[in-house]
Amino acid sequence: MSRLGHFVRSRLHRRLFLWFGLSIFMTGVVVATVFSLVGGNTWKQEMMRLKDFASHRFEEVWSEPARRDALAQSFAKDLDIEVEVTDASGKLLVLAGGLCKHAEFTLPVVRAGTTLGQVRVCNGLARGKTPLKVMLPLLAACLMLWMASGKMARRLAKPVDALVQATEALGAGRLNARAEVLPHATGEFTVLAVAFNHMAGRIEKQVADQRELLAAVSHELRTPLARLRVLTELLRDGGGNPKTLDQVDREVVELDALVGELLASSRLDFGQLTPRVLDGRTLATQAMERAGLALEMLDVGAPETGLVGDATLLGRALANLLDNARRHGGGVEKLRVQEQGEHLAFCVEDRGPGLQPGEETRIFQPFYRKDRGGEAREAGSLGLGLALVQRIARAHGGETFAENRDGGGARVGFTVKKAGPPDAIERPAA
């Protein structure tokens, strides 16, 4: 579809406006055609009768020059026209009302089958008129009707536009969006807007309730998890079975990680990002320290590492990248921070065998595990870490990537837009 076609078809009030205009134009054409068909023959018949009458009057006085001249002068004066009377040879006999340059019609003067002469008539009434003056009233009437139709079209389409804007806002995640109930809207549009607002209100309440429940459950889970970790430490000191304690401790750590990922995922689901000014080097350093890795493995190649983002979510993404390299890549080789145009890239290089063909995209799918046997489960892998990294990157205007390195191993990372998340409205300074 062309731009003009999209512009015309994209808004309801424009389409109504054009349809009203087309209807006015077609109505004018039909009325003009009907007048031409109905009134045209009558006008021609009246003109023929007028010509016959004038011709007979001149035929009666043709032999009397004084009366003939007086009749021509009378026609010219009373009808405000120019009249030229000539004989059969074309000799001018009478000139009344001025010189006739362009004859409207010619009346032959015939008596007993013999042509006595002719009368040329020029319509003097047409000298002061132009076609524009005839068309101006019609054009003005059509313009007024079309302007009124534009006002009517906008009035009809405005409630629909308001409802569309509210629907788009709700679809974009702004759950507090409501359709404005316009005072001049018709009954059907008012009922539709009220129904939409009720629906949006119920959706907002349900989502808020789910969010509160999720947050409450997550926080409630963290308390027994912390107690379990304390108990495992006490059991170790009391001489418990080390293997059993290791298994319990591993499960507790996995549950704690799952709760953290659940909280991060819920923030993404509900758009609860808190963007603020951050430093990429600091984020990477903190992630390395939390993972217990040497800072010598950190390589910052970007001259400027400032960015705007959510510190908690970006920290979770870096932790997942490092954890993925530790579990499935044979350990972390390097964590690099690089600049890519308007984006900042974080990537982890591992020491593993690399990615299999097709895994460059599959590893970011939820619940995908390279090892699907019992070893993966024993290692605490559920295939959620890199999927969450991808969601965090996209929420910050970036994307994830994965590739094999030339010297062996894989390189997995993500980019973020330095200017901040696309939907961020407030960006408070750190």
Q: What is the succession of H and E elements?
A: HHHEEEEHHHEHEEHEEHHHEE
CATH topology descriptor of the largest domain: Heat Shock Protein 90
Average pLDDT value? 79
Question: What is the first-to-last residue Cα distance?
Answer: 47 Å
The biggest sheet amounts to:
5 strands, mixed
Rg calc: 46 Å
Question: Portion of residues in helices?
Answer: 55-70%
Count of helical regions: 11
Any idea what the CATH superfamily of the largest domain is called?
Histidine kinase-like ATPase, C-terminal domain
Estimate what percentage of residues fall within beta strands: 15-25%
Extended strand count:
11
- The CATH class of the largest domain is identified as Alpha Beta
Question: How is the topology of this model organized?
Answer:
Layout: H1 3-10, H2 12-61, H3 65-79, E1 82-87, E2 92-96, E3 105-111, E4 114-122, H4 131-171, H5 187-237, H6 242-269, E5 276-279, H7 280-290, E6 298-300, E7 306-309, H8 311-328, E8 332-340, E9 343-350, H9 359-362, H10 374-378, H11 385-395, E10 400-404, E11 410-417
Parallel strand pairs: 6-8
Antiparallel strand pairs: 1-2, 1-4, 3-4, 5-7, 8-9, 9-11, 10-11
Helix pairs in contact: 2-4, 4-5, 5-6, 6-11, 7-8, 8-11
